[in-house]
Every structure is written in C-alpha cells, then in structure tokens.
Predict the structure of DUF882 domain-containing protein.
Amino acid sequence: MNIIHKRIGRSIFFIIFILVACIFFANLVPVREAETQEAGEIQQAQLPPVLVTEPLPEPERPPDGAVIDHPLPEDPIITDGPWASAHFLMAEYACDCAGYCDGWPAEMDPELLERVEALRCCFDRPVIITSGVRCEERNAEVGGIENSWHLSGHAADLYCPGVPCDVVAAEARELGLGVIEYPDRQFDHVEIWK
C-alpha cells in the first residue's frame, strides 16, 4: 500500500510541476517581447536625428515579382581598416579582381563616397557595394565598357536589401548621382561625371 501511495504522490507532484512550468513559460514569452520592444524604443531614442524633408514612400513590389531581395553579405563582415565614410570601409570599394592589381588601380572620388554615404543615410539601412574601382582586367571580365567610370574611381555598383532598385535609383538621382539601372540583376550603377 505504501508503494501505491508513493507512486500516486510522485505522479501528483510531477503533474503539479509540469503545470507550474507551463504557466511560468507562457507568462515569460510576452515579458521578453515587451522588454525587446522597450529596448528597441530606447535604442531608437538614442539615435541621432536624421533630416528628412519628405517621408519616403513605402516601396511597392511590382506584381511580376521583379524585385529580388539581395541578402546581406555572409559573416564575417569586415569592420577594420580605413573608413571611406561613416558607414563604408574603403575596402568595400576596392577592386575585387583575382590579383591583377593591388586593389587600387585608381583612387575613389571623394564626392562619390560622400553621395553614396548620403544615399545610405536616406534609407537608414545598409547599402551593399558590389563593385567600386576596377582594374582594366577586372572591368573586361565583368563586361564593363572600355572607358568605364569604374576604372577611374568615379563609379560604384550597389543595392539596398529590401528596397527595389528603382527606388534606390530615384533617390540616387535626387542626390546628384548619375544612375544606370539594372532591374534584371537588381542593382544600380551610380557615378560622378568628371
């Protein structure tokens, strides 16, 4: 009889323990969500103000599904080295050839760097540089034109994850950049004419 009482007691204890644990974890999830939301509001409040003259329209996705959301680069993202501007390392603009040059066949135009930084600030989200300065060999490999602005550091190819390339192009034009859109490949070529 004692064995039966012990088993019943253990079973009751186990059931009560499971119920208490379920109630505890069910109440814990909303608290974490609220804490995360409060932390996000605190971080948002600490960000420097951004001057926006007009609110940006919410990007519309074309019905034919032409917008491809590019992913952010795979980790690790390089965070050391000289900075081109507040959000971009110089290395992001370097020639990505297979060793034909030292990465810098020409210097990047400071005006281009400023305007790409301004573009990034307009969207307040990452802008990914896929091509900056190029050596002649790399330019030929990617099918660039013979006198491409990439060769002299006056051009960059870029995209903003989650923002349609035509919206990025329109904002780049507003900032005074020359733009060639590549909607089929979902990036924009921006340049400074010199």
Strands lie at 128-131, 155-159, 178-182, 187-191. The chain has four helices and four strands.
